[in-house]
Design goal:
The protein has two domains: 129 residues, no CATH class; 147 residues, NADH Oxidase, CATH 3.40.109.10. The radius of gyration is 36 Å and the shape is rod-shaped. It is 53% helix and 9% strand. By secondary structure, the chain is α+β, with helices and mostly antiparallel strands. Helix 1 runs antiparallel to helix 2, helix 2 crosses helix 6 and helix 3 runs antiparallel to helix 6. Bound molecules: flavin mononucleotide. Flavin mononucleotide binds next to strand 3.
Length: 321
């Protein structure tokens, strides 16, 4: 914005200067070289009109301003040509007359073009590079509805913790729907969405989970669980389905934290034994690979935010830098 203002000040300073030069070439031609005295006036006027357009209509592009300046200059020329208001002058004009006759019009047109060309050069070679505006983000068609403070975003992400103790309270279908919707909003390789989800709500099946997974003891108290699966029949990009599932899982965990639920990610893939056990527990077909088990429930424990940030793990451009 500041650069646009400075740019306009340059136009405002140049404009009277150029106009004065135009007047000077017309008033005192005897003191000037013949070429400048003959052609300079028109060129300076056209340049002045170009600067005026650029000053008054900053949103008009350089070429647009050039076209307007040239057009205006020609209209003024036509009005002078007929010694009448330009509208009268135009009335007497025919295309044939313009193209074939009025030799002087072409000379004037050349002068105007030179003046406007000077303006275009000034703008593109000097003003554009010097006063290049800071690119501003474009307004998007579907903007994020609410702007969230970046500190809040970071705090929110850090507040998601693995919860392993749950209250004896239900998790509704509606809440599960939110988690699944969030999971499926995740990025995936080529948008293949090679995921599928098995929701476990049955108490007996939940207890079985505790038996078949050595580190899923929290499912004893968790109200429900989701088995995130890779659907290899949907996978189009070799080996990427696990990354699709990871992204979906993290989305799911964050959404749960957002609605006050606790979760714990329990790894299944690639542990062959766990995979086989979950395949059997959920009756999965061959092309579906159990990827992770997510315990879901109303938290019975609170944990502070985790800040695992370690600058030693960040490398700039190359490893070690
Ligand atoms: C791939 C993966 C597998 C995990 N498996 C288990 C698991 O089997 N049991 C468990 O209690 N936690 C599991 N976790 C949770 C981690 O232990 C936990 O994320 C980590 O200790 C950091 O704690 P936080 O999530 O509270 O920040 C797993 C996490 C990931 C990403």
């Amino acid at each position: 914005m500041a650069s646009a203002r400075r740019r306009r000040s340059v136009y405002a300073c140049l404009l009277p200067l150029v106009a004065l030069m135009g007047i000077a070439t017309r008033r005192f031609p005897e003191h000037l070289p013949r070429v400048l005295a003959r052609y300079g006036g028109d060129a300076f006027w056209a340049l002045a009109v170009f600067l005026l357009v650029a000053l008054l209509a900053p949103r008009v592009s350089t070429l647009g301003a050039a076209a307007v300046a040239l057009g205006l200059s020609c209209l003024v020329e036509l009005s002078q040509l007929y010694h009448a208001p330009w509208i009268d002058g135009l009335r007497g004009t025919t295309l044939g007359g313009l193209v074939l006759g009025y030799e002087f019009l072409w000379t004037d047109l050349a002068c105007y073009t030179a003046g406007v060309g000077l303006g275009v050069l000034l703008e593109t070679l000097v003003l554009d590079p010097v006063f290049r505006p800071t690119p501003r983000p474009r307004a998007l068609k579907n903007p994020v509805p609410r702007r969230i403070d970046m500190d809040d975003v970071l705090k929110f992400i850090q507040q998601r913790r693995s919860i392993r103790q749950y209250q004896d309270a239900p998790v509704s279908d509606e809440q599960m729907g939110i988690l699944l919707r969030a999971a499926m909003a995740a990025p995936s390789a080529g948008n293949e969405q090679a995921w599928a989800f098995v929701v476990i709500s049955d108490r007996e099946r939940m207890d079985r989970v505790v038996e078949i997974h050595p580190y899923a003891g929290m499912c004893k108290t968790a109200a429900r669980a989701i088995v995130v699966c890779g659907d290899t029949s949907r996978a189009q990009h070799e080996g990427m389905w696990a990354q699709d599932c990871s992204a979906a899982t993290q989305n799911l965990l964050l959404a749960a934290a957002g609605i006050g639920l606790g979760t714990c990610w329990c790894g299944v893939h690639p542990a062959a034994e766990r995979e086989a056990a979950f395949r059997e527990l959920c009756g999965l077909p061959d092309h579906v690979v159990p990827f992770a088990l997510i315990a879901v429930g109303v938290p019975a424990e609170t944990k502070g935010p985790a800040d695992y940030y370690d600058p030693a793990k960040v490398h700039n451009e190359t490893w070690g830098a």
